[in-house]
Amino acid sequence: MDKFLLSYLEKKYEVREGTPLYTIAEKLLQRLWQGSVCISVEGDLANSKAVGKKGDTRPLIFDEGNLYIQRYFVYQTRILKRIEELKIHIITGGPGTGKTTSLSEILKNRLNEKILLAAPTGKAALRMRESLSKQGIALEAKTLHRLLGYKNSLEADIIAIDECSMIDMSMMSKLLDAVPNNCDLYLLGDKNQLASVEAGSVFADICRKYKHICEELKINYRAKDAPGIEKLSKQILENSVENFDNENVHYLENDNFSGWYENLFKAENHEEALKFLKTFQILCATKVGKNGTERINRELCNEKTKFTPIIITENNYQLNLFNGDVGVKDKERAYFYVGENEIKSFSILTLPMHEAAFAITIHKSQGSEYERVAVVYPDREMENENEHVFLTKELLYTAITRAKKECFILGNKEVLANSCKKEIFRASGIR
C-alpha cells in the first residue's frame, strides 16, 4: 500500500517527494503500519486536490484535525453511524469474569427466536460454542467470515459476537452494516487485550466512547483456582509489577522447551496428543531471534516424536479448517477437535497451509486458553524500533491470561518490565 499510494499521489495529484503533503502521507502510512488509522495534522490541508473532506472521493481525507486514507475514514464513518442506529449491547471483562455466562442468561429466555453466533477465528468460535453448551445452550457458532460471506444483510433477532478485540475496522464496518436495525447485537470481549492485527483498536475505542452501552464485568470467578495469574494480570495493566513470581506464576532463568513436551513425545495415539494441547502451550512475543517461535519450533521438530502440533495459517471452508486452528499430525494424517471431545482427521495431502505449533505467537493465542502456558519474551530489547513498539502491556497481559492454572515466564526481566510501561496507542476518530 505504501508504494502504491505515494506513487498514486505523485502521478495523479503531482504531490512530489519532499513536499509537506508527501512527507505527511509517508508519516500516515508509517502510523497505519503501527496500528493507527489517522494522524493529527495542524493547519488546513483542504487546498490540496489530493485531500478531501467528509463525503469527498479523494485518496486522503482531512476531518476534525485528523488525516486519513480514504477507506479507513469510510470504515470509521460507517461504524459511528451504525452504532447510533443499532441496538448494541457490549459485555467486556477479563478471562473468567463470566462474559459467556452473562450471554447465556440472555439467550435462555429467547431460544425461540432467530439467533446467530460468531467469533473472528474458528478456534474462538469453537470455544464459544463449547462454553454455551456447558450452560445448556446448543447453538452453532461460525467464524465472522463465514457468517457474513457475501451477504449484505443478516436475518436474526439476536446476533452475538465473541472475542471482539480481534476485529479490525474493515470487518467491524462490514458486520455493523449487515446487522438489521431491529436486531439485538451483543459484542463480547476483553477491552484490555491485544487489538486486531490490522490497523485500529475498534472494540476498545467503542468501549471508551460508548460507556452507556457497555457492561464491564470485574469479578474473576476463576481466580480462586489461580489467584497469582489474576494478581499479575492486574499489576501488568496498572504498571505496578514488582516481580514475576508468585503462587501461580514462575520466572525461569533457563529454558527447557523439550521437557515441557515430554508427555506429547510419549503419546501413543492422536487422542492423547490432542488432549495434551489443551494442557500446555509455549507463547512467544516474536517469531524471530533466540526466543522466537521459528527457532523453538525448529529445535523441537528435531525431537523424536510420533505427533507434531500444527497450526493452520489459511482458511479452508471446504474442510472447515481455519487460520488459527491447532491440531496434531503424524506421517499420514492430521487431527483436530471439532467439538469439545469430537475429533476429525484429514489426510496431510489435503491440509491447507500450516506450520509447526510447539510455539505460537501471543497474537495467535487470542481466543484460546490452556491449563499452563510458558510465555517467552526476547532476551534483549528489540533493535528494530517498529518491532519494539509491539512489546506492550497488552501483549504481556494477553499472554498471561491464556493460562488457567499456571504460567511460566522466560526472557529478559528489563524487557518484561519495560513492556509493562508501554501501552498500545492507536489513533482513531472513535476515541
Tally of individual helices: 16
Morphology call: globular
Biggest pleated sheet: 6 strands, parallel
User: Which structural class do you get from the secondary structure elements?
Assistant: alpha/beta
| Fraction of residues in helix | 25-40%
Mean pLDDT over the residues: 92
Trace the largest sheet across and list its strands.
7-6-8-9-5-10
| Radius of gyration computed on alpha carbons | 23 Å
> In percent terms, what proportion of residues is strand?
15-25%
* Beginning-to-end CA distance, first to last residue: 25 Å
Total beta strand runs: 20
**Residue runs with pLDDT of under 50 for 5 or more positions:** 385-389
Report on this structure.
Helices cover 34% and strands 21% of the residues. It has 16 helices and 20 strands. The two termini are 25 Å apart. It has helices at residues 2-13, 20-33, 70-85, 99-108, 122-134, 144-148, 169-178, 202-209, 227-238, 257-260, 262-265, 270-277, 293-301, 385-388, 393-400, 413-421; strands at residues 38-40, 51-52, 60-63, 66-69, 87-93, 115-119, 141-143, 158-161, 184-189, 214-217, 249-252, 280-284, 308-312, 326-329, 333-337, 343-347, 354-356, 359-361, 370-376, 403-410. It is α/β, with parallel strands linked by helices and 431 residues long. The strands form four sheets. A six-stranded parallel beta sheet has the order 7-6-8-9-5-10, with helices on both faces. The radius of gyration is 23 Å and the shape is globular. The longest helix is centred in the first third of the chain and has 16 residues, at 70-85. Helix 1 (2-13) packs antiparallel against helix 2 (20-33), helix 3 packs parallel to helix 7 and helix 15 crosses helix 16.
